[in-house]
Inverse folding.
């Protein structure tokens, strides 16, 4: 017993012993609680680790500098790298990314960089890219990359991705089928078109008023079918890589004027206010006249189609700010594109909800074709839109191009 305790009266000694015992019990309880909390944390961490490890998609976490801080087992299996070999290394070094054509994607151009700026990015079958395995082989990938935010500050990114080789094979088979079917449809449709024109011209005798009316409806319906088949053929060729770009000197102003002339009857029928501004001294550019005609026709016809009667359309072609590119603008006061669907507008077969209700004949292929042509010919296309107020499409075309004849 401590010397100080012996000096206390017996009653106070008992009280002191009791307080000491209570304090020891309290300390032991605190230690037990801490041990239990530690065990719970370790157990939770083990569960979290097991969940992340068992995810079927590849998972990689990187800090704000792009250095890897975590990968799961699916990542290891898909790319061939072990976790211990990649932690602390730059993600671009470990999993290089290529475009479908095999071009390396730099760190500044990767969607990872967009995510670090706060944007969640989805890359799917409509915008394919490839990851390179440790052994040098590559596989098509779809992914979702999201910024990690702590206290309002971006501290890194997390990406989940999966191998979509099977999905691409299925998509390829569907594309080949569409191409074959479209080719087979062209011959009978051309025959119907030819014979209908002959009948309407009176080559087989004079038509009665009612007969002419019916034949004109057949002719219009057949023209719509021909347009659809041509669009399907164009899309399938682009998807299969058999769409040839014939780069040659092209009078872009003349191409645009031709498209305007084609649309004038529809513009007049809807009594639209149409304003066309063509800057002086538009140069001859290197491009594919037929494809550019298709781009302009799709954009202008969409504006005409999706702008209510007596609305306004403004079309202009001039020099961009840098003067080394031309800028086409197609602005309308039409239905606009819902904000929630603007990210899908260049997707194959996609049509916004608000226009599907008003026009049932669209294919959802026009803007997909426009984007594909621009992506494969050195140009750019983008838009600004507000529902029920209108849309403006922008197309940027390089003036001096050394782009050789290539396949899209």
């Amino acid at each position: 017993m401590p010397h100080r305790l012996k000096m206390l009266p017996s009653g106070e000694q008992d009280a002191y012993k009791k307080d000491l015992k209570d304090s020891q019990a309290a300390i032991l309880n605190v230690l037990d609680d801490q041990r239990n909390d530690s065990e719970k944390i370790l157990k939770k961490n083990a569960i979290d680790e097991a969940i992340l490890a068992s995810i079927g998609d590849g998972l990689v976490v990187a800090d704000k500098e792009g250095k890897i801080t975590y990968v799961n087992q699916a990542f290891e299996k898909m790319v061939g790298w072990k976790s211990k070999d990649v932690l602390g290394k730059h993600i671009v070094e470990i999993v290089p990314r290529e475009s479908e054509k095999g071009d390396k994607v730099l760190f500044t151009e990767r969607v990872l960089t967009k995510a670090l700026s706060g944007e969640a990015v989805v890359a799917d079958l409509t915008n394919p890219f490839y990851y390179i395995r440790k052994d040098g082989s590559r596989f098509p990938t779809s992914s979702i990359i999201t910024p990690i935010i702590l206290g309002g500050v971006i501290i890194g990114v997390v990406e989940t991705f999966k191998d979509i080789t099977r999905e691409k094979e299925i998509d390829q088979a569907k594309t080949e089928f569409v191409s074959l079917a479209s080719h087979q449809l062209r011959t009978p449709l051309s025959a119907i078109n030819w014979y209908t024109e002959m009948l309407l011209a009176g080559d087989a005798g004079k038509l009665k008023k009612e007969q002419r009316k019916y034949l004109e409806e057949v002719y219009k319906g057949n023209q719509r079918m021909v347009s659809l088949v041509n669009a399907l053929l164009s899309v399938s060729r682009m998807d299969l890589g058999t769409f040839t770009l014939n780069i040659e000197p092209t009078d872009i102003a003349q191409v645009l004027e031709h498209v305007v002339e084609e649309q004038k009857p529809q513009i007049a029928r809807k009594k639209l206010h149409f304003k066309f501004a063509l800057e002086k001294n538009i140069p001859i550019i290197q491009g594919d006249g037929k494809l550019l005609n298709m781009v302009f026709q799709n954009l202008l016809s969409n504006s005409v189609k999706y702008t209510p009667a007596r609305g306004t359309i403004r079309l202009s072609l001039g020099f961009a700010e840098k003067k080394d590119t031309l800028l086409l603008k197609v602005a309308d006061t039409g239905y606009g594109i819902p904000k929630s669907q603007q990210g899908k507008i260049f997707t194959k077969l996609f049509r916004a909800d608000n226009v599907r209700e008003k026009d049932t004949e669209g294919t959802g292929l026009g803007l997909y074709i426009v984007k594909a042509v621009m992506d494969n010919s050195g140009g750019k296309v983008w838009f600004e839109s507000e529902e029920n107020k209108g849309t403006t499409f922008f197309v940027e075309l390089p003036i001096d191009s050394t782009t050789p004849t290539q396949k899209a």
User: Anything to note?
Assistant: Residues 322 and 398 are 11 Å apart (CA to CA).
